[in-house]
Design a protein that fits this description.
Shape of chain A: globular
Shape of chain C: elongated
Structural class of chain A: alpha+beta
Number of strands of chain A: 4
Number of helices of chain C: 8
Largest interface: A-C, 32 and 42 residues
CATH topology of the largest domain in chain C: Rossmann fold
Number of helices of chain A: 5
Strand order of the largest sheet of chain C: 9-8-11-6-7-10
Helix content of chain C: 10-25%
Bound molecules: flavin-adenine dinucleotide, FE2/S2 (inorganic) cluster, zinc ion
Radius of gyration of chain C: 26 Å
CATH superfamily of the largest domain in chain C: Nucleotide-binding domain of ferredoxin-NADP reductase (FNR) module
Largest sheet of chain A: 4 strands, antiparallel
Order of helices and strands of chain C: HEEHEHEEEEEEEHEEHEHEEHEHE
Order of helices and strands of chain A: HHHEEEEHH
Oligomer: heterotrimer
Number of domains of chain A: 1
Strand order of the largest sheet of chain A: 1-2-3-4
Strand content of chain C: 25-35%
Chains: A alpha+beta, B mainly alpha, C alpha/beta
Chain lengths: 151, 195, 368
Amino acid sequence: MKETTKEQRIRARMQPGAITLTGFIGKDKRSLGSIINADEQELNKLGRNAEEIAARMQYFSDASFNTFDGSITLDENYLVETEITRGRIPCPYADGGQHRKAITKLTNLKKNKSVSWTALNIHLIKEHHFFEGKGSTFRVEPSVLVEVLFD
Amino acid sequence: MDISAFILFWAAIFTSNILLTNFLGMCSYLSVSKEIESSFGLGISVMFVLTITTGLNWLVYNFLLVPFGIVYLQFIVFIIVIAAFVQLLELILERYAPALYYTLGIFLPLITVNCAIFGVSLFMVIRNYNFIQSIAFGAGSGIGWMLAILMLAAIRRKLKEKLVPAGLQGVGISLIVTGIMALAFVGFSGIVQVQ
Amino acid sequence: MFSIVLKDVGILSAIALVLSVIMVIAQRWLSNYGECKIDINGKREVTVTGGNSLLSSLTEKQIFLPSACGGRGSCGACKCKVVSGGGPLLPTEKPFLSKEELLAGDIRLSCQVKVKSDVKIELPASIFNIRKYHATISEIVDYTYDIKGLTFSFDEGETVDFLAGQYVQLNTEPYEKVKERVSRAYSISSKPEINNALQLIIRYVPEGICTTWVHRHLKVGDKVTLTGPYGDFYLRDTDADIIFVAGGSGKAPIKSILEHLMEVGTNRKMTYFFGARTPKDLYLTEEFKAMEQIFPDFKYEPVLSAATPEDNWQGKTGFVMPYFPQAIRDPKNTEAYLCGSPGMINAVTKALMENGIPKDKIYYDSFG
Ligand SMILES: Cc1cc2nc3c(=O)[nH]c(=O)nc-3n(C[C@H](O)[C@H](O)[C@H](O)COP(=O)(O)OP(=O)(O)OC[C@H]3O[C@@H](n4cnc5c(N)ncnc54)[C@H](O)[C@@H]3O)c2cc1C
Ligand code: FES
Ligand SMILES: [Zn+2]
């Protein structure tokens, strides 16, 4: 699908070296719209939606964020570790959002599986339903998220 | 062609809508119609640029190309005139209406390659319009184009909440909607005929 | 035949030429804003060539507003009060302004505002002390597996005047795929008494634009630029007892403060808690331990939260908060200087206040 100028400008900001070192697209050749659609459909199949996922991610990040060394065990089943660097980075959609440079690692102890995401990932999923392109360093797979985030 | 400029104006909007009967200017129509605000911005720009460039191209055609016998170069010349005018407009807007410039700014370069603009200039030549008719036809086509893109944007907004089969999402369903809109507009065509 | 082609080409060229001339004239006339005056706080006036952004016009006059995105309208750091002459608020600015700022209507992004007429702006006085420094890297040391200390020596004649605890912005140069310049904040770790060089302590952040450049590309002898000093985190000149708390790369500003105190001498009672996870996160330990002999009343306390038995760690463990009561003599007469992650700052501030230290005597860099 062809992209609008607005999408092209967003895509430009998602290139390696524009806002972040490795960018948000990876090796993905699809348009932004198709990437988002595909992930939404996958979520549909899994019976979840982006808002729900983002809220759950936020819950874990917030909990560990408020601790002294960024790590906490929640509900006996989840180990959350957040590493925060001072400073903020903007959202590539240029909506004025500034996000912490924080990486959260969540381990589901029962399933013995873990997944990592950044504060910007949460925003991108919540507001833009964007999980990043295939091959992007910070892409989070919807299926992995669903598996680790929920019991 | 002796058809009153007034009638031509209305005809260009409804009975021979440049987009829905000639299918010109499709590219930006499909890609920008995702949002109503952007559609409105682009619509206004197209309308303005269309009206003026049709007038300019009429002057260039009748006072330069015909007397010098280089009518066969009209394609190149029309394009140059449109491109130059859009550039000029960008400069003027940046200076005197910065807020408008930032809203339209991204659409202006897009207009240079909008085939509706070029198409209207060519129709004006083929159909032998006089100056007043050309301006009326240009303005009408511009408004018609804007009407069409606004309608599609509004429909697409509604469509967002509807379940569209996966393969038809985006351009697919837009083209179908456009087809139905075109059918509806054909209903007007008995009123006046300008083709 | 040939002459016809020539004639046609000639006419076509003439048309193109006329249009270009119109364009050039229009550009000259429409984009020429002449000389514009920028009035700053009603006290100082600078004259610039109109048509450029307020941010770059000010930079040209050696007035440096903060900026992290290099003027591309994506960081919002360059906010500034424009009293008059800024033109209408642009759609590119709106997302960055808070409700209050939108209401006030005079806070703008200086990188988006174009200077097209005389402009009146207001800036905090501390901005005028901010300079751009040209420096050569004279030393790089590895403090831990992911923390480096870099010394930047200024070009001849350039000197910096800062308060111990403040930070500077390091400007990157394009490298590999990174075509743009970015600026990142780093606390100064050297003492203010050295004014022709700076030391920064920089921790590697995975996939970070600036830190990858610093850790993987910079070498001794490379030239870079820095702007500063910024920040309201600095040592207050009182006699109160002090508690320092730092984590990770947060050692930098406290190192500066302590080295400064060593220079000027002090009798204040001071305790420095450094929170880390494992022994391999510790650095400069001997240097700070040695200060215990130099100051009359100083203690350096590294506290590890995730030391394993194999680490064989003899010192304090857990979080730093439980150790505060031992370090506090008179809470009302104690200041605290904190530097670290926001989570750490929240937890520590809460504990300090529970121990009776007044909120307004707890200092940390507010943004981060
Ligand atoms: C006042 C102040 C003082 C400071 N002092 C120091 C100091 O003394 N020492 C020090 O080491 N640092 C200090 N910092 C931090 C420093 O300014 C930088 O923020 C830090 O070095 C990281 O910069 P960077 O360019 O390497 O990372 P950036 O490139 O800006 O950010 C990298 C991070 O962005 C996120 N990210 C990147 N790409 C993506 C993606 N595709 N999707 C989702 N998320 C993504 C990840 O979280 C990643 O870790 C200070 C900051 C402030 C505000
Ligand atoms: S400098 Fe980043 S928004 Fe202005
Ligand atoms: Zn966003």
